[in-house]
Amino acid sequence: MTVTLPPQPFLPFTRPSIDEDTIREVGDVLRSGWLTAGPKCAAFEHALSERFGGRPVRVVSSATAALELALRLCGIGPGDEVITTPLSWVATANVILAVGATPVFVDVDPHTRNIDLDRIEAAVTPRTRALLPVDLAGLPVDRDRLYAIASRHGLRVIEDAAQSFGAHWQGREIGSFGDLISFSFHANKNFTSAEGGCLVLRDEHEAQRFEKLRLQGVIRLPDGGMDVQHWGAKANLTDVAAAIGLGQLRSVDAFTVRRRQLAAQYFAHWPALPGFSLPPPDAAQHGNWHMFQPLLPEPLAARRGDFLAAMKAQGIGVGVHYPAMHLFSMFRARGHAPGDFPVAEDIGARTVTLPLFPAMTDTDVPRVIDAVAAVTALLS
Ligand SMILES: *Cc1c(COP(=O)(O)O)cnc(C)c1O
């Protein structure tokens, strides 16, 4: 006898949750006659600043813009080196190239998958100007050790916290302390404005310099005229996006709670599949579970494309975040080769991102786990 189950809807690896109030508020902006940077952006900055203990916050069109302009704010450019991780979205290194500086990669810690703090100091040279760490999957880099290294060597820190909104280090929220902190509001992040980002700054003086970098370098004069002393980008956010962001800000803490529950379900129900490595479980203490990423065992990892396709055939979307970026053609052309950062290469070759987003139901995690077990048996 064959039993035909009703087809289940496709489960993507992530999906934003936008509530009806937010949709209405976006409609209000569209009807208001003021679409681009205006009162909603100002309200969004104010709300973010309150969240971060009153620190100045400026919203921009993307985290890529926030990071690039943060580097420019620090005066980093040609001849300078910035230390970062090879295991991130390529934006992290692209922004360093964008200002004419050199990304200096340091391998990752096999446990946290974040930049290996034990290896940073060996990479510091007289040209090093800043550290640009990433909180992969929303698990914070050890901020105590990070800032101790930075202060020993007189370096700025630009935190790429694109994935760690709502995460904490030792009870303090990421963004509420530290040097410069960049967040992304891209649709796949823990909270979104469709596209967008922000930079948390140290003081109003830096925030005002950042405002000029954000929009064409323009300084408004009391007589209605303007002046431009330095180049500026075109990187303002829109009020349409800010309305989405303000709506999401009401829900983001509930999102984090739900993400932690779902991650706990993965750990509790994960079957005995030999060779798989689960993400660091201590993430529950500090992280926001931006992603849930087991590492495939060999030889299954060598067939990751088949794994993704077979999961998709089961109705489940799986992502890859990220291949080690120093092996991209652009960085090979700059002299990198396999073997340069073996830990990042190993993780990058084996990682898969399973579905984890707040609207998932309690039956979704078991469904994903069953599919992983079935597909692993099929491909082994
Ligand atoms: C998403 C992401 C970025 C870029 O964010 P955008 O808002 O898309 O520019 C940078 N770094 C990391 C680690 C990211 O995950």
TrEMBL record:
The keyword Transport does not apply. Keywords: Pyridoxal phosphate. It holds the Pfam family DegT_DnrJ_EryC1. It comes from Variovorax ginsengisoli. Belongs to the DegT/DnrJ/EryC1 family. The lineage of its organism: Bacteria, Pseudomonadati, Pseudomonadota, Betaproteobacteria, Burkholderiales. InterPro entries: DegT/StrS_aminotransferase, PyrdxlP-dep_Trfase, PyrdxlP-dep_Trfase_major, PyrdxlP-dep_Trfase_small. Signal peptide: none annotated. The keyword Plastid does not apply. This is dTDP-4-amino-4,6-dideoxygalactose transaminase.
